Amino acid sequence: MNLNKKVCHITSLHQRNDSRVFQKECLSLSKHYDVSLVVYDGKGNEKIEDVNIVDAYDESKDEASSRIKGLLVRPFKVLKVAKKINADIYHFHDPELIFISLYLRVRGKKVFYDIHENLPLQIMNKDWLPPVLRKPISILFTFLEYVCCRFFSGTFVPQPSMVTKYLKYNVNTNLVANFSNWPVNRSGIGKGDNSRPVLFHGGSLSAERGLFNMLDLAYLGKDSIELHLAGGFKSESVREKALQHPGWKYTKYFGVIDSNKVRECYQNSDFGIILYNNVGQYYLSYAIKLFEYMANGKPTIMPNFGEWVSFNEQYQAGINVNVLEPKSILNEILSLFSDTPRYNVLAINGAEAIENKLTWDSQVKNLIKGYNFND
To answer: At the top level of CATH, which class does the domain 186-356 belong to?
Structure first.
């Protein structure tokens, strides 16, 4: 433990209570270091538990409104605040902060890049980018990461397969998976008190994340299942399209809710559901919601492509389905719901994996190991 060493996490795009940035990393590291978090959200400064949150947004000035203007303004506002903290270690979370983080590195600071997603793949699915520009920008960003990551003190990635890629860029690359930091809910393991299956999905709602696959399922199963959703829509156009979908009126939507309400939703459901489409990085299985479903003792309905298959073969915590075949998904859900012994085995498998193998404490050790590399 070294509470005299200052660690500063920096984000210009994530919310101050972000699950990975704040709830997991900052709060955990505050037991070992003096931790600050620089954000850009206009909600002011505050201290939560042992983490000092410093807001770089200045509402007294003309703040950036457009996407491009924001990209040019936010990093420098964040840098100005981060420099004042004068931390020993800087840990940034957004690609738009790469250049200001290089500046901190040149100034002799230890700087770590937390790579939340495989952005070159995700760029290919950014609908706000003209299709003709997506591939060139993806290639350009791949080169940018390849060059810049070499100068940082280390990188952290959330997916095992990303470790292999980024080790080629920086030898101090460590896995910090999004394992649940909630204790396993032993009382919640198994079915809720429901006469028919209740499926819960918490998180961002978009086409690539399977929103319309789930609505197709809700419509087909309107007489035999219930679909519960929580989280924000990726865009207003996605929200409007969802509201017009015939499955929407058979869906219970909770909006953006806090962690206590999320826990209540888990308690009242029977399955976690993830019907991501096979685009971008969504073939990767280490999703935050997967581990939360498991921690709450709910079998997960998950894709039958990519790393989802090998993950479920290893942990036996749910069933793999073809996300584009709602009739088949419905039949498999109803079959599993009626087979209580099999259902319970999957529920217990998931909870025990979180408790004994996929522990957040192991990932905190990886963070500290990265910080201490070559010290």
So the answer is: alpha beta
